[in-house]
Each structure stands twice: as structure tokens, then as C-alpha cells.
Design brief:
With about 200 residues, the chain is α+β, with helices and mostly antiparallel strands. Helices cover about 30% and strands about 30% of the residues. It is built from 6 helices and 8 strands. It has an 8-stranded mixed sheet, sandwiched between helices.
Length: about 200
């Protein structure tokens, strides 16, 4: 399989490899503070030192490392402005699954951009030969749950006591799954199959 982060398009959006500056714009805020955990959602500027380390050898090196790790990372663009990203992790070839995570700059919340982008990415992943797309969200991350429910993901696993938040509360993680069959039955879209895994 080719693990290049391919150019993908929707009616409003383009998903493609980003540049260092694009990641900094997307991650302007600390996403851990934007998850509604403990009924708190704060706009807190991100400490960019971690991002600086990720891109210290340049964007091409970053994407080369991703390719070797069998991962993809799309920056989501609206009118050439970077507004979010979608990253794959945890490929499991034994059950042809891949996990995705996603972030959207809060300025663009509530406009349907992330479901639109995820739909195209999910279809692309199925076309590569994956049968299962998995996503994890934390208890209290209402926005992520809403997006995944809207797309039709269903419960898969609960990981109890996986995270301790600033207030000391212990948070569960929820894994949800979308199978290729579920996607077809929900959307009626036939998935083009490229190289199988």
C-alpha cells in the first residue's frame, strides 16, 4: 500500500499534506482544554515547543516518518486556510483496521466541516483496503461524540479510568467503529477498492 497522504477534495474543503505553518495555525489552541471535560471548555493558547520539535527537520521529514509508520496526516483547508487535521494511527492489518483522530480550530465549529472532511477520508481509507475505521474520544468530549454519532459510528470498547483530568476526575475513553459494511448500508456508496492490505 502507498502511505502517501493523498490530496482529497469535497465541495468545500481540500485535505492534503500541510506545511509547518499550517499545523501551527490549526493548533493555535490547546485542544485538551477544548473537550468539555468537567464542563470546562477554554480557549488556551498552545505551547508550540512540542510542534517545533516535531517539525525541526522540516515537513518532508515529518511525512517520511509518517509513511514509514504507515500513517497519514491531512490538514483540512477551507479556501486555502488551514482549519483542522485528520491523522491516522494504530493500523492493524490482522483485522484491516486503522484508527483516526481529528481536530478542528474552534473558529470553524458548528458548520459541518469535520463530518464533511471525515466522510471523504473514511471513503479513501476503505478504498485502500481497510475494513474498519476506529476512533477514540474521551468522556465529556461532546463535540467529538456528536460528529461520530452523526457519521454513524457505533460503540466498540470502553477503556475505563484512562485519563486523569486537571480537577482530579478520572475519565473513560470510548472507542467507536465504522465497518465498511456499515458505511455501505448507511450511505449506499460503493467503495472503490485499490490495493488490498
Amino acid at each position: 500500500m502507498n502511505y502517501e497522504t493523498a490530496l482529497l477534495k469535497t465541495k468545500r474543503l481540500i485535505m492534503k499534506r500541510g506545511e509547518k505553518e499550517d499545523f501551527f495555525k490549526v493548533y493555535e489552541y490547546d485542544f485538551s482544554k477544548l473537550k468539555n471535560i468537567d464542563d470546562v471548555c477554554k480557549l488556551v493558547k498552545q505551547d508550540t515547543s512540542k510542534l517545533e520539535k516535531v517539525f525541526k527537520n522540516g515537513t518532508n521529514k515529518y511525512y517520511t516518518k509518517l509513511k514509514k509508520a504507515h500513517m497519514f496526516d491531512w490538514i483540512v483547508y477551507l479556501n486555502e486556510n488551514p482549519i483542522g487535521n485528520i491523522l491516522t494511527t494504530d493500523e492493524d492489518l490482522s483485522n484491516k483496521s486503522v484508527e483516526i483522530s481529528f481536530n478542528l480550530h474552534p473558529k470553524y465549529w458548528g458548520k459541518g466541516f469535520m463530518p464533511e472532511a471525515l466522510t471523504t477520508v473514511i471513503e479513501y481509507l476503505y478504498s485502500l483496503g481497510y475494513d474498519n475505521v476506529i476512533c477514540t474520544y474521551q468522556d465529556g468530549n461532546i463535540r467529538a461524540k456528536r460528529v461520530l454519532d452523526k457519521l454513524g459510528f457505533r460503540a466498540y470498547k470502553i477503556i475505563k479510568d484512562s485519563f486523569k483530568c486537571d480537577s482530579g476526575n478520572i475519565i473513560d475513553n470510548y472507542k467507536v467503529i465504522m465497518t465498511k459494511e456499515d458505511w455501505f448500508s448507511r450511505t449506499g456508496k460503493i467503495i472503490r477498492i485499490g490495493n488490498s492490505l
